[in-house]
Amino acid sequence: MWELIKAGGWLMLPIILCSIATMGIIVERLWTLRISRVSPPHLLGQVWRLIKDKQMSAQKLKEIRASSPLGEVLAAGLANSKHGREIMKECIEEAASRVIHELERYLNALGTIAAMAPLLGLLGTVIGMIEIFSGFMGNGMANAPMLAGGIGKALVTTAAGLVVAIPAVFFHRYLLRRVDELVIAMEQEAIKLVEVVQGDREVDFTEVTKA
Length: 211
Hints:
This protein is mainly α. The protein contains eleven helices and no strands.
């Protein structure tokens, strides 16, 4: 492994740093974007139970807001529910925009690494090829084995860049899809909250609150 890194030259360093950053972002986002953490399935039922039992207080609202991203969105709506449906919806949308920004944290960086890593690898290969042919021109014609060995070493950075870029592209798309699914789930829960608090419809939370 060390020989391959040496063969790739100094451009292997940024590629290795990209691989470390990619792994860190993927692990952190997979842990952070768990459904149970972002949008707990029974949170809305618990909130509605507190409202029906008239146990909703400033402390309870603070606990709901701190419990999860969905809790932050619901708490924003509850805190302004007395001002009418439109104000409640506006507050929910403002809170949701902040939550979505947090859910998408580091994903732009992951996408940048996915695009940059193969380019770094290609640059390393081009530099290596230039050095190889410059050396051959100075020392006369080289034989085929020497040329093949030099080209093989020059291609190390391209291979390393692709090894970093392929999982980065995959998880970038996967995590964006995960964020979209979580946002849709939170939007549905927020809509239910607005409708039941403003008295537009009855929602049966029996199964939710029992769980």
